[in-house]
């Protein structure tokens, strides 16, 4: 497992445990030896990611040409074959957006 995935799993586990515990985030962090602001950061990041995934902002696009399609996302140009599956394009756009949030 990559380090980023391990970190995400670590924080997701603690976020779920805090919810189940009934403790405030601050109290939970004190008991677990976690830095409260880091806990809140990952909690907000998780909330934002799940909101994006549950409410995607993509519109259907019909492409009638066989020319390459170029999209610009957050200042980055991405070229696609017109027959690239929409799910693949959406996943790439989501990943680029996430990388720009981290930067």
Describe the structure concisely.
This protein has 103 residues and is mostly helical. 61% of the residues lie in helices and 10% in strands. It folds into two domains: 1-55; 59-103, no CATH class.
| End-to-end distance | 22 Å
SSE class:
mainly alpha
Low-confidence stretches are none
- Helix-strand sequence: HHHEEH
Backbone shape: elongated
Description:
By secondary structure, the chain is mainly alpha-helical. It folds into two domains: 55 residues; 45 residues, no CATH class. Helix content is 61%, strand content 10%. Strands 1-2 form a two-stranded antiparallel ribbon. α1 packs across α3. The longest helix is centred in the N-terminal third of the chain and has 19 residues. 2% of the residues are buried.
What order do the helices and strands come in, and which of them pair?
Layout: H1 3-21, H2 25-32, H3 36-54, E1 69-73, E2 76-80, H4 86-102
Antiparallel strand pairs: 1-2
Notable characteristics:
61% helix, 103 residues, 2 domains, two-stranded antiparallel sheet, 2 strands
